[in-house]
Design a protein that fits this description.
This protein is of the alpha/beta class. The chain folds into two domains: about 130 residues, no CATH class; about 290 residues, Alkaline Phosphatase, subunit A (3-Layer(aba) Sandwich). The protein contains 17 helices and nine strands. The chain has a seven-stranded mixed beta sheet with strand order 2-9-8-1-7-5-6, sandwiched between helices. It has a two-stranded antiparallel ribbon with strand order 3-4. α8 runs parallel beside α17 and α14 packs parallel to α16. The longest helix has 22 residues. The chain starts with a helix and ends with a helix. The mean pLDDT is about 85.
Length: about 425
């Protein structure tokens, strides 16, 4: 293992990817696709993803030969029982064919448990040998706009019981403006994050079903951030969806065509601001290829983009805004992601009630996604339903809110509290 240990990434230096690849080749075969895929797309990874992959491989590389053998032997034996050596198994990247081969094995459940055990063991070794990194407070801030009539009786049903509903006095839309722009003498959330040390664009995400965030964030244009607008991506979405619907319902052919879609030049359809953001373009292509509805439903786009940002980038602050979607048109194939605007001559019709239901449920899913990771224990949650002049506030684990449940709060009071938590 000395080769990798000598090539271990030092602070401010590039890792030895060739040494990483040689180590991956010594690991059980079923671990190769995901790890090799990470290395092949190294420049497209967010800083958190790069650290996570480096930390894992460095920890494996630091094991003694006997510890390495003990770590990998159970999974190697299980792969032999599964018949993996005889499979047509891609080691370069995760594919639908790989997933199908694994899922069809009678040992699939056992394989999943063994992979989890291996990663947990490496993680424990890593934590015991490396100093703990400071974990700053994180924030998931969500807005359901006033044109979505959320039912006040069910708005916060099934939300985190640690949280509390608060009434917002005055114009609840003002809170959104404060988060995005601040006011004289009080900076918005991006500038506040900059004051607290956030510098990388992956530390702050704005994800919008429409284009309102773009118009309100002009004052923060110099701040590092990642901004996604479903509406602004329409030309790309339409073109990509047309290509996506040519994929046959065959796993091997689908893998090949999806690989081609990843390589295709989409420059003609990208918004201008994406020209110098290859990581973000790669993130969106992955998002559209994941088959989750993000390419045709604005609120699904917000939820899935936020969940993937939380998984892949671990941002300190993520701000989302849901929006209005159209009613599904009769005799169109939503299940196979057809473009309803082009396939049906019927006019588009807003669906405020359905959009409201979607937004509150999907906002809760985003919060639940944040809780899947260790960073979730130090995350504040705030979801604002402007139509009801109501918000739900969730403190980090082990904390509590000092506000009186009976007292309403102005948008300025809520934002002052929120910003105070960020910069403290």
């Amino acid at each position: 293992m000395n080769e990798l240990t000598n090539g271990k990434q030092q602070k401010g230096t590039e890792p030895d990817l060739a040494a990483y690849r040689r180590l991956i080749n010594r690991l059980p075969v079923t671990l190769h696709p995901s790890l090799n895929q990470q290395l092949s797309a190294w420049e497209m990874l967010f800083p958190f993803e790069q650290r996570r992959t480096s930390d894992f491989l460095n920890a494996v590389g630091s094991l003694s030969p006997s510890d390495f053998q003990a770590l990998t032997a159970p999974l190697l034996e299980l792969e032999r029982k599964m018949g993996v050596p005889g499979w047509s198994f891609s080691e370069a990247r995760d594919t639908m064919e790989n997933a199908s081969l694994l899922a069809r094995s009678e040992y699939y459940a056992e394989w999943r448990k063994e992979v989890e055990r291996l990663f947990e063991a490496v993680g424990a070794a890593e934590r015991s040998s490396a100093p703990a990194r400071p974990s700053p407070m994180r924030f998931v801030i969500q807005f359901v706009p006033c044109n979505l009539p959320v039912d006040p009786l069910t708005a916060w049903k099934d939300w985190d019981p640690r949280g509390r509903e608060i009434a917002i006095s005055g114009d609840s839309r003002r809170l959104y403006e404060l988060v995005m722009q601040g006011r004289p003498g009080l900076p918005g959330i991006a500038a506040s994050l900059g004051q607290s040390g956030g510098v990388d664009s992956s530390e702050l995400w704005f994800i919008d079903a429409g284009e309102e965030m773009s118009s309100l964030s002009v004052a923060q244009s110099s701040m590092a951030r990642t901004s996604l607008s479903y509406a602004a991506l329409k030309p790309l979405r339409d073109r990509f969806l047309a290509e996506l619907n040519t994929i046959p319902r065959d796993t091997q052919a689908s893998d090949e065509i999806m690989g081609e879609l990843r390589k295709e030049n989409w420059d003609r359809w990208w918004p201008a601001e994406f020209a110098s953001q290859p990581k973000l373009r790669n993130f969106l292509i992955d998002l559209f290829l994941s088959g989750n509805g993000a390419i045709i439903f604005s609120n699904a786009f917000v939820e899935w983009a936020a969940s993937e940002a939380l998984r892949r980038a671990r941002p300190r602050v993520i701000v989302t805004r849901f929006g209005m979607r159209n009613k599904p048109k009769l005799f169109t194939g939503i299940a196979i992601f057809e473009n309803q605007q082009t396939i049906s001559p019927l006019p588009d019709v807003d669906d405020p009630e359905g959009s409201a239901i979607d937004a509150v449920v999907l906002a809760r899913y985003i919060w639940q996604a944040a809780l899947r990771y260790p960073e979730g224990e130090q995350t504040f949650g705030l979801c604002v339903v402007e139509h009801n002049h109501s918000a739900y506030v969730i403190p980090p684990a082990g904390s509590s809110l000092s506000w009186s449940a009976e007292r309403s709060m102005t948008p300025e009071e809520v934002y002052n509290w929120l910003r105070g938590q960020l910069v403290s």
